[in-house]
Design goal:
Helix content: 10-25%
CATH class: Alpha Beta
Strand content: 25-35%
Order of helices and strands: EEHEEEEHEEEEHEEEH
Radius of gyration: 17 Å
Shape: globular
Number of helices: 4
């Protein structure tokens, strides 16, 4: 298994476009589904299907292009010291590749109830970022490392809760069985990679918080049978950066 964890060279975040924001009295407790959509990025092309195939993904991470991530830093909403974290971005090698995601339980202290990648805080015993992401994936959903091929890392993404998150992108061989940690994960599901890599499915939102600061984010709602999987915030931001990486 390739455990290379060297992130791409430092890059400059692109300037955020000016858009009309909706005011809200508090950012910690609002329902993101109630915030209007201010734009849909259908003017951007989807990642070509051939770039989503395993050999193309391996080649892209082996020789990264020049590119600029779009989302790096959310407005800080905590006074605690920043903490290093890693998430696994698991691309499952189905006939049509998918991304494995989780719905977090509502009792968690951070990002409860949200759609997320498996992942969490870097522990002292973790050998590297990939090891942390693999450990967290095992602890949260029972995904065994024997099915995982790590490709590499995307640039860090800092959340409102002061987690400095490194996305570890990996290919996952089918045949695995999941065992969800009921304290952390309510459910696990898969979304087609092609859906997530098509900006026509990327919706822009903005909200005004304390001090007239504007918080902006993307959502990528996916209809999974009778369930709407509301991908938004940090997870959607990291997926958008993956889009930029693959589309460059």
């Amino acid at each position: 298994m390739n455990l290379s964890t060297t992130p791409p060279p430092a890059v400059r975040a692109s300037p955020v476009e000016t858009i009309n924001a909706v005011a809200t009295p508090a950012l910690k407790s609002f329902d993101p589904r109630t915030v209007p959509v201010v734009g849909i990025d259908s003017q951007l092309p989807p990642v070509p299907a051939e770039r989503l195939l395993p050999h193309a993904l391996r080649a892209r991470f082996a020789a990264p292009p020049a590119w600029t991530p779009e989302f790096r830093l959310e407005p800080r909403m905590t006074d605690r010291a920043p903490a290093q974290a890693a998430v696994l971005v698991p691309i499952v090698l189905r006939a049509e590749p998918t991304v494995l995601l989780t719905q977090r339980t509502t009792q968690l202290s951070n990002h409860s109830g949200q759609v997320a990648f498996p992942g969490g805080r870097l522990d002292p015993e973790d050998a590297n970022l990939a090891a942390a992401a693999l450990r967290e994936a095992w602890e949260e959903v029972g995904l065994s490392a024997e099915y995982v091929e790590v490709l590499g890392c995307l640039p860090t993404y800092t959340t409102v809760t002061a987690f400095v998150v490194t996305p570890v992108v990996a290919l996952v061989r089918p045949g695995f069985d999941l065992s969800l940690n009921p304290f952390e994960v309510d459910t696990a599901f898969e979304v087609p990679l092609s859906f997530l890599m098509d900006p026509a499915n990327h919706r822009r939102h903005a909200v005004l918080g304390e001090g007239a600061r504007t918080r902006q984010w993307l959502s990528m709602p996916y209809q999974d049978g009778d369930h709407e999987r509301y991908v938004w915030g940090a997870t959607a931001g990291m997926l958008r950066n993956l889009y930029r990486f693959l589309a460059a």
